[in-house]
Amino acid sequence: MNAKTTSSFPTAAFIDGEWVTSNKTFPVLDPATEKKLADVPDLTPADAQRAIDAAYKAFPAWAAKPAKERAAILHRWRELILAETEALAQLMTAEEGKPLAEARKEVAYGASFIEWFAEECKRAYGHTIPTTGTSRRYITIKQPIGVCAAITPWNFPIAMITRKVGCALAAGCTIIVKPSEETPLCALAVAKLAHDAGVPPGVFNVVTTLDAAGVGKALTADPRVRKLTFTGSTEVGKILYRQSANTIKKLTLELGGNAPLIVFDDANLDRAIAGAMASKFRNAGQTCVCANRILVQAGIYDRFMAALKAEVAKLNVAPGRDPKSTVGPLINADAIAKVKSLLADATAHGAKIEVGGMPDAHGALFFTPTIVTGVSPSMAIANEEIFGPVASIIRFETEADAIKIANATPYGLAAYLFSQDISRAWRVAEALETGMVGINEGLFSNEVAPFGGVKQSGLGREGAQEGLEEYLETKFLCLGGITG
Ligand code: SIN
What we know:
Layout: E1 13-15, E2 18-20, E3 25-29, E4 36-41, H1 45-64, H2 67-83, H3 85-96, H4 100-120, E5 128-129, E6 137-144, E7 147-151, H5 159-171, E8 174-178, H6 184-197, E9 204-206, H7 212-221, E10 225-231, H8 234-245, E11 250-254, E12 259-263, H9 269-281, E13 291-297, H10 301-313, H11 333-348, E14 352-355, E15 370-373, E16 390-396, H12 399-407, E17 411-412, E18 414-418, H13 422-431, E19 436-439, E20 454-455, E21 458-459, H14 464-469, E22 472-479
Parallel strand pairs: 7-8, 7-10, 8-9, 10-11, 12-13, 12-18, 13-16, 15-16, 18-19
Antiparallel strand pairs: 1-2, 3-4, 5-6, 6-22, 11-21, 14-15, 17-20
Helix pairs in contact: 1-7, 2-4, 2-5, 2-6, 3-4, 4-5, 9-10
Bound molecules: succinic acid.
Succinic acid binds near residues 156 and 287.
């Protein structure tokens, strides 16, 4: 069956090169209007099992292809994605809500991972190792790990798929993707383009479902799935980690964050404001690397706050399809409830809402860009991911205070610092307990950078050289009996 949306992208799931429908479906909603965009199949753990069967069957032939041939198919996939930029961006804005300009950038960002891994897979080098005995020679080779499973989030519905699938396929692995139930349409659209590009049946499968727990169990229980990659909450990551223990899967976990963005007295104010705005309000504050706590030193505090208020006033809340929109809706009612409850808790404990702080008239899922000051490190808003357009401000006195506050969290994904003093910038970057640090930069994600966290923000890295390693095994070969 070749189900199509009005924009000609599929609405059926994709297993073994076939479009799969079901009597049971679930609706995909536009968060801007809360209207239904499409119904997609609500597949079962048994369907996930079929996808594993297909990926397992497809693995030997895909793994055996020379990297150059896999790369050629991946390059075609990237080209098809870029050729469909406008349609994909419209689809993304419809199901995820982000402004069209951001959606277009995400299509390019998503495509960049495919390009990078298509190039990088040709360089999956092993080593020769100096021998320990005259009659033996040692080398290592890199081999694809096998069947992989990916559980992907809604906030970057294309890029978080290509970052995983592009890498897996480049390495010679096959994969089953369980996309977020909020944004399955983008996943199906890129799967269709992969199929059109020549990715063989079974190599890339998409299982749409509302039964995330059941399908997650099926994917983690099966010993044929050798790797699991997940982007989402730390809470769910811990469950998947435990479930993967029985079959000792290799894991990449991109989990929650609580990024500090530190503005020192000696910062370039314009750069700090631009960085804070980009980091905080991208995707309406719904990224794992968003500045969750903005720490501002006392000497620059008043100037920073005045400039921040002026910039926030320029934001334009509107449905993402409106070309003037810079802040779209949040993903669902739970997201709105979370933002409201964090703000209520913060104000009950003495914080002050300086700007915004209320729902926006465009619809039930819109929230006004907000600045809350007087936040203290013990408040819930400083300890939980806000995932909304709320700048939460903590004032500090000394560099040591800033480092202490920044590191006082179980998370360690991203951090940002703004300072013109190179010694301080280096010192603080080294002291921050995170996997990534933006120094005088509010946006650092790209395909050549290793993305990932420390502490309870996860395991492993995506993108970059390190990303490819996550889908490869190192095999040691010892050749004996060499005579002189
Ligand atoms: C995320 O929020 O999980 C990804 C953000 C990024 O790639 O920059």
